[in-house]
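Researcher: Next sequence.
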Amino acid sequence: MSDDSIGTSPRGTPTGQLPVSPNNPCPFLRALVANGYVGGHVVPLSQIAEMVGLASGETGSAQRDVRIKTRMVAVIANGLGPFSVLKSATSGAVLDELRDGPLDKHGGGSRILDVDAKVHEDEIARLAGFGKDRQNPDGGTERGLTADEIDAFMKANLKRDGDKARWYYPMLMKGEWPVLLKILGKGKGSERYLSVAEVRTLFVERRLPDRITARLPKPAAGR
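Model: Next structure:
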């Protein structure tokens, strides 16, 4: 679920939000922290799994599967060593210490968010270039990417990174953009798409769409 590195376009903390550490590089988790759904430091894996499971909109065994997969990723987010894994499993993931962890691709991904938590508008425009205009279920059209277009985008990111790309980066990527498509996507089947406008809102404003937050419990911070 993490993104990566390069630099320009600083943003302060939007009004009414909590500050988020630049060392938390995951846009989804950044939105949860900023709006008080989870804390910004140590967060129990069960709480992270609950939020992702509820946000997915799945129910029953399908949601249970989402929660299990989320825990499997979160438990190694701060390190692969036995001590790190045990600490994460028992205490929780340290969200403000994810940078440079096992899930950080060091610039091998979208490069929308840099190491200083600055958003690169040109990289959002690049993302949009892989998509097409779609019929928005809420009316009108908007630029969005289907699963196939997201796959092409991720492959292009790997190619751009060249020899710096590690063999395991494709596996990490499967836990990022395809997961965002699953959670934020609009439409059904092969036509389901990820809205570029909502991606921009997620990165720049650190906000999730209302249809997603409606699935979540009331934020602990009272937002």
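Model: The chain has a mean pLDDT of 91. The two ends are 24 Å apart (CA to CA).
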